[in-house]
Amino acid sequence: MGGKGAMMVAMLCLWALSATTEAVVMEEEPGLMMNFYKDTCPQAEDIIREQVKLLYKRHKNTAFSWLRNIFHDCAVESCDASLLLDSTRRELGEKEHDRSFGLRNFRYIEEIKEALERECPGVVSCSDILVLSAREGIEAVGGPHIPLKTGRRDGRKSRTDMLESYLPDHNESISVVLEKFKSIGIDTPGLVALFGSHSVGRTHCVKLVHRLYPEVDPSLNPDHVPHMLHKCPDSIPDPKAVQYVRNDRGTPMVLDNNYYRNILDNKGLLLVDHQLAHDKRTRPIVKKMAKDQAYFFKEFTRAIQILSENNPLTGSKGEIRKQCNLANKIH
User: Fold this and answer.
1) For 319, phi and psi rounded to 5 degrees?
2) Residues 286-303: b if buried by 16+ CB within 10 A, e if exposed
3) Which residue numbers delimit the Plant heme peroxidase family profile domain (predicted)?
4) What is the number of other CB atoms lying within 10 angstroms of the CB of residue 178?
5) Based on the number of CB atoms within 10 Å of its own CB, is 87 exposed (0-12), middle (13-18) or buried (19 or more)?
6) Alpha carbons 109 and 125: distance in angstroms, whole number
7) What is each CA distance from 100 to 118, 140, 160, 171, 187, in whole angstroms?
8) HEC profile of 261-313
9) Are 101 and 21 in contact (CB under 8 A)?
10) Which pLDDT value is given to residue 290?
């Protein structure tokens, strides 16, 4: 065999070896899939479902916490449970940042993790717990069942320095909000549907007093203002005080399309709620969702699926934390 022939054979061998190695890696690292734990921890999703139900019976507001968690974690670069990490001497945790104001009930994530560790030690990630508890929380408050893939692994560091780049503030323009959601693959109907989460839970007075003091925002429905003033009597409320307004006075514990009817009636608590109802890009979708709950649920399901699959760590990336609030110690 001549020199050229030998070189060709060597190159083909290298190519075949590289293709085989790549195939093995792909086989080992399948990424997200439905029922990822069917062989390693078949009871995983049932355990999370039961734990969420038990916690919801004891503390109704846990469902709202699970719903906020998926947004605050998955919208910030990666769905990797970085939100759950405690602050360290070197790094402020995402939980402590202003954009995370009002987030709570993290200790109950640990209860779910402990139940899973008793069944299958070191198998189920905190990021999958975070995502699946959100799904069960959505169902607990009357929302749709959302099929979600699993197989995420946990990150090792907080992304506190990135929060403002990814999480919209309640005072930002609808254009900024649309752009931030678009960057993670969520289109305008998906954005409007995710805002339907404001149909449950409550808004702290800190976030809305600028619409009441020193003068009442004239765009607010005048029939709604006395209730808001009664709930938020101070122009500078104490952030630690339990001063808040229910997002939806009609069905405060139900995820439904009443939110859209409220904001069309100028009863949205946040400035961004008001903009959503009146901006020409979002108003037609708001009106459609106000009339058609099935359409709202369809778009909400799609948006949650996209959010839950945002740039996850899979395969050999990341780790399976032993405790959700702490990265594993590296020996």
Assistant:
1) -155, 175
2) bebbbeebebbbebbbbb
3) 31-328
4) 19
5) middle
6) 11
7) 31, 23, 10, 15, 24
8) HHHHCCCCCCHHHHHHHHCCCCHHHHHHHHHCHHHHHHHHHHHHHHHHCCCCE
9) no
10) 98
What's residue 6's pLDDT?
53
- Rg, the chain, Cα only: 23
Q: What integer pLDDT is reported at residue 15 of this predicted model?
A: 53
Distance CA 56, CA 91 (A): 32
User: For position 20, what pLDDT does the model report?
Assistant: 46
For the chain, which ranges sit under pLDDT 50?
A: 10, 19-27
The yes-or-no answer on residue 97 being catalytic is no
Nearest CA to 83 out of 22, 193, 159 is that of 159
Residue type, 188: T
**Separation in Å, CA 77 to CA 24, 87, 96, 110, 151:** 28, 19, 18, 23, 17
Selected catalytic residue, list 59, 72, 274, 278 = 72
> How far is the C-alpha of 142 from the C-alpha of 139, rounded, in Å?
5
**Helices 293-308 and 283-291, packing angle to 10 deg:** 120
Identity at 304, one-letter amino acid code? I
Angle, in degrees to the nearest 10, between helices 62-74 and 293-308: 50
Within the chain, residue ranges assigned H as helices are 3-28, 44-58, 62-74, 106-119, 126-140, 163-166, 174-182, 188-195, 225-231, 258-264, 271-278, 283-291, 293-308
pLDDT number for residue 243: 86
